[in-house]
Each structure stands twice: as C-alpha cells, then as structure tokens.
Amino acid sequence: MKFDEIQIRVRYGETDQMGVVYHGNYPLYLEMGRIELLRKMGVSYKKMEENGIMLPVVSLSLNYKKSAGYDDVINVKTQLKKRPTVRIEFDYEITNEAGEILTTASTTLVFIDMKTNKPTRPPSYILEALDN
Questions:
Q1: Quick count: other Cβ atoms within 10 Å of Cβ 88?
Q2: Is 49 within 8 Å of 19 (Cβ atoms)?
Q3: Shortest CA distance to 91 belongs to which of 70, 106, 110?
Q4: Which of 16, 71, 72, 113 is the catalytic position?
Q5: How far is CA 38 from the centre of its chain?
Q6: Does residue 16 have an active-site annotation?
Q7: What is the three-class DSSP state of 41?
Q8: What is the per-residue pLDDT across 46-99, written as a single tens digit (0 to 9) for each?
Q9: How far apart are CA 42 and CA 128, in angstroms?
Q10: Is the pLDDT of residue 131 over 90?
C-alpha cells in the first residue's frame, strides 16, 4: 500500500523537564505524517470536511522504544495498512537520524458523514487516489 516519510525537528516546547519528547506529542507527529501521506496522494482533509466528511481517530496504539530529545530530527514513516472501507488504518515508525526505531504506532480512523454523524464509505476520490 501507500507510504510516505516526513522529517520533524523536535521543538523545545515538545519536551519535558528531562529534555525528552513528552509522550502526549506523539499523536501530533502521527497526524502530521498521516496528513502529508494523504496530501501527497491528492487528498485534502480540509476539502473532505468541506464536502461533509470528517475522519476522527477511533483507535490509537503507541509503543515507545527509545526517547527523542530537543532539536533531534525524527523521521515519521506512515503507511496505509490496507484499502479503506468505513475505516482507514495506518501504521507508523518513528526513527532518529541514526535510523534507530524510537516508536511504533498504529491508528484507525472512521469516515463520518457530518450530516448524519454516522459512519460512511470513503469518498470515491480517495479510492481513486489509491489506485494511482
């Protein structure tokens, strides 16, 4: 399936008193990776929401292996696990500049029709973007 990788430089405000990335910032890194993967496929979160579809996270799993610290450059590799149905699932691997795995993660999001607030199938343009 599709994958992408982005680099993020850890900012001072993302660290705790011990100088390591605070655990609550990792979901933001995952979101950045997920949005960039979709953007590079030609899918915009903003346009999707303007067209009445939202994509909330319903499941998040993180496995911390090693710490990242202030000013470190981390790589967030995001992979679409399989063709989406009502759900879209991603796997992630966050590494440091040496290629060491810092964190592995997975998320599941659900396509929601904003009018009915109920799950729905993905818009056709997302499925078409996967085929390209």
A1: 20
A2: no
A3: 106
A4: 16
A5: 9
A6: yes
A7: coil
A8: 999 999 999 999 999 999 999 999 999 999 999 999 999 999 999 999 999 999
A9: 10
A10: no
Nearest-angstrom CA–CA distance, 71 and 7: 12
The pTM of the full predicted model, rounded to 2 decimals, is: 0.94
Give the pLDDT score at 7: 98
Asked whether the beta carbons of 4 and 37 are under 8 A apart, the reply is yes
Helices marked H in 15-54 — which ranges?
26-40, 45-50
β-partners of residue 76 are 6, 94
Distances (CA, A) of 53 to 2, 76, 102, 104: 21, 26, 33, 28
| pLDDT-derived band at 132, boundaries 50, 70, 90 | confident
Question: pLDDT digit string (tens) for 3-62?
Answer: 999 999 999 999 999 999 999 999 999 999 999 999 999 999 999 999 999 999 999 999
88: tokens are 């879209």
What is the rounded CA–CA span in Å between residue 8 and residue 90?
Answer: 19
DSSP secondary structure of 50-114: HTTEE--EEEEEEEE-S--BTT-EEEEEEEE-S--SSEEEEEEEEE-TT--EEEEEEEEEE-EET
